[in-house]
Structure to design on (587 residues):
């Protein structure tokens, strides 16, 4: 990757000529630094309000209160990135860490109102040895928004980091996750799903670097695109020299339900160690016509059959969310919007 | 009554049914037998409205209504049920959810009240018991990981719950051992009634020992080439289809 993306410095805006951004051309939509967003307003408690816990809220990049959080014991944190802006840009920076022995349920939401804003969220997450962090991200932003979220995650020996991204896109929405994986039994899961309509674009990009032996990474991403929407999945797993015994599995599966929808997938396994188990699978297809006919033959309308098959396809990702309350909240959120 | 007259169906550019004419009165069970490639499965698909199997000529009416203009879901709501030779696996959709969704979709289409969850569960428990099916299996995704026999029982269970009036059974005996065949046949026989018509499509006579037809028709090269009583099935079993294949060509 070239110089880190910075909303205030157009020289850092990547174009499709930048390999890591080739499917998400920021320059196509933004050539100059946007004017800074004024203070905005926050309404309600966000999509995870019912699950309680502590709150960390950013509105137009500004922290409402603290901008960092440390979990001791067993905690739930609702991390909200709220955009309330028109044709302006803002950057939020949040630091999250969990103490050894603690478990953090990190419920992150990207909530947007307004017109054609640009939002950049930078997140560092520290999961030391003996800690567990479960991160669930929901995005709900306008179709003309540009939003880039970059999370740097450090996972210590024997730690647990599980994340599930639920993305609905924007003009260009990128959710990027960089994981430094120390191995020694550390368990990383990087799941995601996207459901895109109209001309929305989502980019799920992740890089996991296995630096120590005996680490586990499991990744399942699924997506459905309709109309002229575009889904991008880039998953890279690097197994460094000496990271023997690594077990890494990556899967990305997408459905395209229209003639002009598009999905671009780039799975990469880069292995410098011996004695590792790594696998990746990638499929892009359409709904099974025979299954659709079967369901209609039993009385479901074509739309009902399509909706049921699509939901079933995506729910495999939701079913993998460990926390029951969060799982049900996400399921309800998706069902409400289907 | 089901009335098919001069039905022509082409799949792609290949004509499969070439002027098929057949009447099945209410309350009767008719068997369609024929060699491989005669058009037996095509007939089932054409009657149930599978895309790509549209009639190019001729007419099909069910209880006096034209079927060919209706989409598959509309036909289902009119009582048409096709039991698939190879039932489809639907990952992620529990069998119970699927059947209840289908039943309520049909009821809505007919302007009837939807079935409540307790009523539905009661009906499912009774029907699954009759078919010797494990109730817990119905909580699993439809047909996923089911054996061939379990899938066929699942088809009959759906039939029992959806209560169709025109039943089309496509090679229901394929892949069944003799015990499973008996259970499935009993399930079908339980649905026989004065208002129901059944079309039993089969290659072998074996199934007809269990589901006794009123009439047997031979389908060869896209047409009904012979019709008779149950004895015709035995004759076919003994002599094979060679005679009819030659005749039709």
């Amino acid at each position: 990757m070239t110089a880190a993306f910075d909303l205030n410095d157009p020289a850092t805006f990547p174009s499709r000529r930048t390999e890591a951004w080739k499917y998400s051309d920021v320059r196509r939509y933004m050539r100059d630094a946007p004017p800074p967003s004024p203070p905005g307003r926050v309404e309600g408690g966000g999509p995870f309000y019912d699950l309680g816990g502590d709150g960390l809220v950013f509105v137009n990049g500004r922290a409402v209160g603290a901008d960092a959080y440390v979990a001791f014991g067993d905690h739930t944190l609702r991390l909200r990135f709220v955009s309330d802006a028109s044709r302006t840009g803002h950057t939020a920076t949040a630091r999250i860490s969990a103490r050894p022995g603690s478990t953090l349920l990190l419920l992150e939401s990207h909530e947007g109102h307004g017109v054609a804003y640009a939002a950049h969220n930078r997140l560092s997450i520290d999961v030391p040895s003996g800690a567990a962090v479960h991160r669930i991200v929901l995005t709900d932003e306008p179709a003309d928004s540009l939003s880039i979220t970059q999370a740097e995650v450090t996972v210590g020996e024997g730690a647990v980091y599980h994340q599930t991204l639920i993305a609905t896109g924007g003009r260009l929405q990128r959710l990027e996750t960089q994981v430094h994986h120390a191995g020694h039994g550390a368990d990383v899961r990087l799941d995601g799903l996207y459901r895109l309509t109209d001309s929305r674009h989502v980019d799920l990009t992740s890089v996991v670097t296995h630096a120590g032996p005996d680490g586990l990474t499991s990744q399942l991403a699924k997506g459905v695109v309709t109309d002229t929407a575009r889904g991008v999945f880039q998953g890279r797993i690097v197994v460094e020299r000496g990271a023997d015994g690594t077990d890494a599995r990556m899967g990305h599966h997408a459905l395209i339900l229209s003639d002009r929808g598009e999905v671009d997938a780039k799975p990469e396994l880069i292995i410098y160690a011996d004695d590792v188990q790594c696998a990746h699978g990638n499929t892009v297809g359409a709904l099974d016509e025979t299954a659709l006919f079967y369901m209609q033959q039993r009385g479901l309308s074509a739309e009902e059959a399509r909706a049921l098959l699509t939901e079933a396809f995506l729910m495999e990702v939701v079913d993998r969310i460990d926390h029951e309350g969060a799982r049900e909240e996400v399921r309800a959120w998706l069902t409400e919007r289907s | 009554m089901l009335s098919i007259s001069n039905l022509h169906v082409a799949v792609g550019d290949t004509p499969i049914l070439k002027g098929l004419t057949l009447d099945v009165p209410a309350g009767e069970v008719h068997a369609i037998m024929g060699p491989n490639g005669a058009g037996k499965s095509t007939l089932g698909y054409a009657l149930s409205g599978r895309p790509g199997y549209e009639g190019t000529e001729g007419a099909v009416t069910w209880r006096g209504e034209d079927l060919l203009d209706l989409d598959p879901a509309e036909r289902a709501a009119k009582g048409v049920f096709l039991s698939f030779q190879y039932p489809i696996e639907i990952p992620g959709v529990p069998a119970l959810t699927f059947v209840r969704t289908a039943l309520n979709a049909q009821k809505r289409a007919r302007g009837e009240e939807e079935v409540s969850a307790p009523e539905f569960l009661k009906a499912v428990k009774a029907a699954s018991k009759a078919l010797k099916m494990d109730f817990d299996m119905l909580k699993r995704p439809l047909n996923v990981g089911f054996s061939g026999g379990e899938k066929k029982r699942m088809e009959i269970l759906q039939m029992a719950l959806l209560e169709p009036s025109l039943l089309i059974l496509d090679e229901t005996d394929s892949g069944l051992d003799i015990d499973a065949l008996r259970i499935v046949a009993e399930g079908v026989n339980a649905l026989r009634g004065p208002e129901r018509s059944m079309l039993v499509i089969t290659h072998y006579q074996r199934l007809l020992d269990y589901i006794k037809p009123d009439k047997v028709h031979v389908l060869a090269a896209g047409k009904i080439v012979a019709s008779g009583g149950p004895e015709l099935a035995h004759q076919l079993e003994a002599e094979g289809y060679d005679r009819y294949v030659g005749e039709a060509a």
